[in-house]
Each structure stands twice: as structure tokens, then as C-alpha cells.
Design goal:
10 helices, D-Maltodextrin-Binding Protein, domain 2, 40% helix, Arc Repressor Mutant, subunit A, five-stranded mixed beta sheet, single chain, alpha/beta
Length: 314
């Protein structure tokens, strides 16, 4: 038996106000709709709830019992709705966040204390990984992702752009020489990031729009930039590195960038969350925080990036 809450609400309002007309006005429904809902409830229960005449209605014995229960059911449903609205309106509960491993450690982790201090009733459940996730299937509320193409079933708020640089140590270039043209990169050893399709294929274009593809040789294949950092800093290979990873070492001179007149396909940091009619307060709070910390022009690596690249350029 599948009883409709709306039918209980219609019946309770008819008994409370004493007429179908008054109930229809209170519920903002047509009189015929209210009458149909009450009749459907009677059919489902298999009992007559109201005696109807052209002049008045009266409640049967069974109807009185159902009215008491229906009133309680409707009141509890309304209370549950109010509680849900109250909970959703407050920034509290558990917020499940997913983010890339290196970005989460280097950039998100250091600003989380500020977020938690701002919302002391919130519990953050942070999971870091570099694989492609199904946000809804895996139960995440929100995700930070660095990508070019995104699932259209999700809402993606653009944050900071992410540029990439070909970088290596001064020692590497002293030993192996400095590539003068992107085609020369094919003669060098690279760290290849295996979380992307065809990591050995490097695509780029110059300022005039001329496109070029170079097939790279990998001395190390790895799914995490931090894990490969020792090989890079030991001067054993070059790396195509995102700006938020390499800008400090470019600025200090520990790394040098090459082929800077060529650009790679643009990437963007996004904060991603499911389509929903009512966005919860906790998700909205994190989205606003992500824009505050990593929005266009606000990300910590953006300000010193150009100066860093200029200093560490060959």
C-alpha cells in the first residue's frame, strides 16, 4: 500500500476547516483536486472517511481515527522539512572533499586551518588522489580538479588558470645541453606523468599559432609529481611541470624553464559539485572559500609566477 502524504494533508485540512472549499484555498489547490485526493485516500484505506451531503460534511468513526493519525503525520513531515532546512542553512556536518594529491598537499592543505576555523561545526573529510573519480557515485560533496574538459552533468566553477613549463636543474642543462627548439626535446630524458593519456606525446603551439608534436623519451613514468621530484632535482631528467609545483624553484633558481615561447594546451583549476536545486550551505561555503583562495588572480602561485619564470629561463 503506497499512501500519498499529499492525500493525508488534504484530508486533514478538510476535517480541520470543515469544507473542501476552505481546504482548497488553504492548500492553494482546486476544490476538485482536494476532493480527488480524499477519495483516493478512502480507496487506498478501503473505508469511508467522510459523509458528504450538499450542505455539509461529517467525519465517520474511521475518519476520526485517520484524522488523528493524519494530523500527526503531516505535522511530523512539516517538522522534518523545517529541520532539514535548518541543517542545510547552517555550515555544519561532514563535508567530503576530493582533490589531486600534489595540489592538495601543497596548496589546499595549508589553507584548510582557515576554513575550519571559520566553520567550527564542520567536519572535513578530505581524500587526495590523482585518478578520475565519479563525484556522485563515490559520495563526494565537492572536488577540486585541474582539467580542460569536464563532465557536463556537474557544475564546474572556474578558478585559477594552470600553466605548464618544461623545467630542469642547472646541472642537467650543464651536462646535457639546453634545447633551443621544442624538436630538440626528443633527445632529452623526461619524467612522464601517467595519469594522462599518451604522456609521451607533447603538443604545443607558438605565438603565431603554429602547432607541433614531439614524442618524448621517459626515464621515469610516475603518477605523482612529488614522488618524481627527487629524480628531477637530482638532474637526471626534465619535467613538464604545472606552475603551482615549480614556481618557487624557478624563483630560487633551483629550476630553469626552456622553450617558453611555446605554449601547451591550457588547463584550469575548477571547483566541481553536482547539479542540485538546493545547494547545501556547507558546499556553498567551500565553493566561496575556494574562489577566495584560488580564484582568478588570487592563487598564490600567480603573483610571482612571471617573475619566477623570467629569472629561471634559458
Amino acid at each position: 500500500m503506497a499512501l500519498d502524504l499529499n492525500a493525508f494533508a488534504a484530508y486533514a485540512k478538510v476535517v480541520e476547516l470543515g469544507s473542501f472549499t476552505a481546504a482548497a484555498e488553504a492548500l492553494k489547490l482546486s476544490k476538485s483536486m482536494v476532493s480527488r485526493q480524499v477519495s483516493m485516500l478512502e480507496d487506498e484505506l478501503g473505508v469511508r472517511l467522510l459523509n458528504r451531503t450538499t450542505r455539509k460534511i461529517s467525519v465517520t468513526e474511521a475518519g476520526a481515527v485517520v484524522f488523528e493519525r493524519a494530523s500527526r503525520i503531516v505535522a511530523e513531515a512539516e517538522e522534518a522539512e523545517r529541520d532539514a532546512v535548518c541543517i542545510e542553512g547552517a555550515v555544519r556536518g561532514r563535508l567530503r572533499i576530493n582533490a589531486p594529491m600534489t595540489f592538495g598537499i601543497r596548496e589546499l592543505g595549508p589553507v584548510l586551518p582557515k576554513f575550519l576555523a571559520r566553520y567550527p561545526e564542520l567536519v572535513v573529510d578530505l581524500e587526495l588522489n590523482d585518478r578520475r573519480i565519479d563525484l556522485m557515485e563515490e559520495g563526494f560533496d565537492v572536488s577540486l580538479r585541474i582539467s580542460a574538459l569536464l563532465d557536463s552533468s556537474l557544475i564546474a566553477r572556474q578558478l585559477a588558470p594552470v600553466r605548464r613549463f618544461i623545467v630542469g636543474t642547472p646541472e642537467y642543462f650543464k651536462t646535457h645541453g639546453v634545447p633551443k627548439h621544442p624538436r630538440d626535446l626528443a633527445d632529452h630524458s623526461f619524467i612522464l606523468y601517467t595519469q594522462v593519456q599518451r604522456p609521451e606525446l607533447l603538443e604545443m603551439q607558438d605565438a603565431a599559432g603554429k602547432r607541433l608534436q614531439v614524442e618524448l623519451k621517459g626515464s621515469l613514468l610516475c603518477n605523482n609529481a612529488d614522488a618524481a621530484s627527487a629524480v628531477l632535482m637530482a638532474g637526471q631528467a626534465l619535467s613538464l611541470s604545472p606552475d603551482f609545483i615549480c614556481y618557487e624553484r624557478l624563483r630560487s633558481g633551483e629550476l630553469i624553464s626552456v622553450c617558453d615561447d611555446w605554449q601547451f594546451s591550457p588547463l584550469t583549476l575548477h571547483v566541481i559539485y553536482p547539479h542540485t536545486r538546493h545547494l547545501s550551505a556547507k558546499v556553498r561555503a567551500f565553493v566561496d572559500f575556494a574562489v577566495e583562495e584560488f580564484g582568478p588572480g588570487k592563487a598564490p602561485w600567480i603573483g610571482p609566477l612571471d617573475q619566477a619564470a623570467k629569472k629561471g629561463r634559458k
